[in-house]
Amino acid sequence: MKSNSGEVIGWENIELISDRPLETMLEDFVRLKREYPDHILIASIMEEYNKESWIKLVDMCEQAGVDGFEINFSCPHGMPERKMGMAMGQDCELLAEVTEWVCDHARIPVWSKMTPNITDITMPSRVCLQAGSDGIAAINTIQSISAVDLDTLRPQPCVEGMTTYGGYSSTAVKPIALARVASIAGLIRDEYPGQGKSLSGIGGINTGYDAAEFILLGADTVQICSGVMMHGYGMVGECRSQLSEFMGRHGFTSLADFKGMSLPYITTHTELVRLQREAIEEKKKAKVGLGNDDAWSGDDFVKQSDSMVSN
């Protein structure tokens, strides 16, 4: 979806699973680790509700040399009729069982990727952390229909006259992603202090300044997909430069210096009302009255008026 200026603000995809065989991807893993041995390679994996299939997939990826796993519990169009992707991530019982299968068998770190298509994202996140996940990745795309063509009356995007619920990403989802990341960061802070649980932030990141916002709300790392698809791989270098500029401006020398720094400023609606009420009362106490009309001053009229306002 585009704004009136032509800027892409939202991106929906209805792609299912790659038609590239698993064996081809495993060969890619081997080649990548051979060519970039000092870089980290994380495999994002998804399977049906079948323990043997999950174990086999984990073994094959580890043999190919990957350094970590991201379990996809969140794709909104990942064959939900087969309890895959989002359908699994919305079922906390299945989530706990499958996470245990993977974490008990894997010899490398495991992150569980959460869906935003759920009422409270901390519930499945907690289940995965309790089941052994080393961290959480959030968010995946938001279930969507991008539009309805008012000439053909067909929902979009259209394939052979039909559509399905797709995954919405890019700039438009960033505020939603920030809120979900903050919720999970609060969960990790409060329930898993000092346990090394990590959080990878995803959703609408196009600049290093976007990345800084996610880190300020508790993310340890960030991920970019739609942005690279639109702007090319060169944007990664630009993001690093922008993030460095932000850090230099504030005197930060590492991500740890500002990770989660904005979290303490998030509170409840009830607390906001209390704070506002207290501020109004303090302002009323500071109100300065004028004894008579002769006390008004032309030069100080605005200041005198402001001092008498009660809210």
Explain what you see.
By secondary structure, the protein is an alpha/beta fold. The chain folds into two domains: 11-265, Alpha-Beta Barrel (TIM Barrel); 269-307, no CATH class. 41% of the residues lie in helices and 13% in strands. The protein has eleven helices and eleven strands. The protein has helices spanning 22-35, 51-63, 86-89, 92-105, 122-130, 174-191, 208-216, 226-231, 234-250, 269-285, 301-307, and strands at residues 11-13, 42-45, 68-72, 110-113, 135-138, 142-144, 147-148, 155-156, 166-169, 198-202, 221-223. The strands form three sheets. Strands 2-3-4-5-10-11 form a six-stranded parallel sheet. A three-stranded antiparallel sheet has the order 1-9-6, with no helix packed on it. A two-stranded antiparallel ribbon has the order 7-8. α4 packs parallel to α5 (122-130) and α7 crosses α9 (234-250). The radius of gyration is 25 Å and the shape is globular. The model has no long low-confidence stretch (mean pLDDT 91).
Which structural class fits the helix and strand makeup? alpha/beta
Biggest sheet: strands side by side, in what order? 2-3-4-5-10-11
* Top CATH class of the largest domain: Alpha Beta
Total DSSP helices: 11
Short overview:
This protein is α/β, with parallel strands linked by helices and 311 residues long. It has two domains: 11-265, Aldolase class I (TIM Barrel), CATH 3.20.20.70; 269-307, no CATH class. 41% of the residues lie in helices and 13% in strands.
